[in-house]
Design goal:
binds NADP nicotinamide-adenine-dinucleotide phosphate; two-stranded parallel ribbon; Rossmann fold; alpha/beta; 304 residues
Amino acid sequence: MGDSKSFAPWLLTGMGGVLGVGAAAHPPQAIHIVAGQVRPSAWPVTPAVRVNLGRRGALAHIVAELRPSVVVHAACISRAADCELQPERALSINVEAVEELLESAASAASFVLYVSTEQVFDGTAAVYFEHSPVSPQTVYGTTKATAEQMVLAAGGAVVRLPLLLGPRVNERRVGADRAVVDAVRAGQRLRLFRDEIRTPVHVDFIAPMLWKLARLRVPGVFHLAGAESVSRFELGQRACLAAGIEPLLDSSLAAQFDGPPRSLKLVLDCQRAQKELGWEPPDLRQSLARTFAAPAFRAGVCSD
Ligand SMILES: NC(=O)c1ccc[n+]([C@@H]2O[C@H](COP(=O)([O-])OP(=O)(O)OC[C@H]3O[C@@H](n4cnc5c(N)ncnc54)[C@H](OP(=O)(O)O)[C@@H]3O)[C@@H](O)[C@H]2O)c1
C-alpha cells in the first residue's frame, strides 16, 4: 500500500446491513475494504475480509495488518430485542469489540468513525443535541452509549442515526418503511405506535455524509436525521401510500407494548452536521421515494 496516508485503505465494518446498502450506493473514493462475518452482497467487487467480532483479537489483527487510515465501524447487534435476550453477547460485540478496535486503531494511527443511534436517549426531551447527556433505556442503547464514550475519549467521531428507511437486504434486515409495506402486502394487520415519534431517513442520504466525515476526520458527535418528526403509525401510512397500496394498519400506544422500555420521542438536532458537513435533512417524502420509486422495488411489485 506504500507509506503515504492517502494510499492507506479504509476499513468498513457492518456493511452487510441496511445502512451498508445505502453506503454501497455511494462508495467512498479511498481504497476501502469491507469486513463482516460474510461478504455483504451489496459490495460484490470490494475487497473483503472475514471477521467475527465475537472472537477476541480478530478485529485487532485485521487493523494491525491493514493499518487503515480510517475505520468506519457500523457492525453491531442492532436489534434491541436480540440485545435484551443476549446481553452478554451484546456486551461482547457492541462494547468489547469496540474497545479492542480502539486499542489497535491507536497503534495503527487509524481514525475511528463510530456509527451510533438515537437509542442512546430516553425519549423524554423535546429534542436531543450532540451535547445532550445520554440516557439509554435498553441493553442495546446502553451498549451503544458505552461504546460512544470510549470512541470519543480516544479522539474519534460518533455519528448518531435515527430510524433507517431503505430496501430489504434479507429476511431479518430491512428498512423500517419497507418492512411495513412488505407485511401489509403479505396480508398482515400491523399495529403501529401512534405515540412513538421518530425522524426517519433513507440510508442513501447517510452514506455521503459518512464518507465526508471520514475524509475530514473531525472528532466529536454528529447527528444525521430526517427533517420530519412522525409517529410509527404515520410512517407506516405514508410508506404504504408511497408504495401505492392501501394503508391497512391499526394504531396502538407504546405503553401497551409488552417488552423492553421504549423511548417515546427521539428527535435529533442536526445543526452541527448542517454547518460542518453540509447535511440537508431530507423530508419524509424524499426518503420514501428512495425506497418505493427505486427500480428494484418497482420490479418486485410488477412481478407479483
Ligand atoms: N437500522 C436502523 O434503524 C438504525 C438506526 C440507528 C442506528 N443504526 C446503526 O447503524 C449501524 C448499522 O445498522 P444496520 O441496521 O445496518 O445493522 P444490521 O442490518 O443489523 O446489520 C448488522 C451488521 O453488523 C455486522 N455484524 C453483526 N454481528 C457481527 C459480528 N459478530 N461480527 C462481524 N460483523 C457483525 C453484520 O455483518 P454480517 O452480515 O457479516 O453478519 C451486518 O453487516 C449500527 O451501528 C446501528 O447501531 C441503525
